[in-house]
């Protein structure tokens, strides 16, 4: 049994989250096929487990990205034009904790909602400041707080307009 589990565990570690759904589906499908004696049942269960695992992983990734984007948007909302401030996100599971700097470029007044355009940086690991990557984004006021207004996961905000 160890001869089978060890290579699969190593493949999962090397493949990361992308491989987790495939491995879960393969194990569930194989186990169901062995238990039932029917490969079609095993195939169906394996596909179902793979789909559910993949959807769960996507949900976790989206919720983590939303938390990061909400943190950056909150900092954008607190700045005056030309001002800069640090941002940082600490997840409950300490993987992917990131930090950087936000600089408010301009305030965009429009009829739909007040928005702000800002540059933000993301520091990767313990690299020096000179290796920061800078990005441009927009945050808009939504109900009672500033929200990320560019692409996903803002789709819920803009619905089919995006």
TrEMBL record:
UniProt name for this protein: Lipoprotein
KW Signal (keyword) present: yes
Keywords from the UniProt entry: Signal
Signal peptide positions on this chain: 1-20
């Amino acid at each position: 049994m160890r001869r089978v589990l060890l290579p699969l565990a190593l493949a999962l570690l090397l493949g990361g989250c992308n491989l987790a759904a495939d491995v879960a589906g393969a194990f569930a499908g194989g186990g169901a096929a062995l238990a039932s004696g029917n490969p079609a049942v095993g195939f169906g269960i394996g596909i179902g487990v793979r789909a559910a695992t993949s959807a769960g992983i996507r949900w976790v990734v989206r919720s983590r990205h939303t938390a990061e984007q909400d943190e950056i948007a909150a900092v954008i909302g607190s700045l005056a034009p030309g001002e800069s401030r640090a941002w940082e996100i600490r997840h409950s599971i300490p993987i992917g904790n990131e930090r950087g700097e936000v600089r408010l470029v301009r305030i965009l007044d429009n009829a739909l909602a007040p928005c702000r355009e800002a540059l933000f940086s993301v520091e990767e690991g313990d690299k020096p400041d000179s290796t920061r990557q800078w990005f441009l984004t927009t945050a808009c006021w939504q109900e009672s707080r500033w929200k990320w207004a560019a692409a996903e996961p803002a789709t819920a905000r803009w619905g089919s307009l995006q």
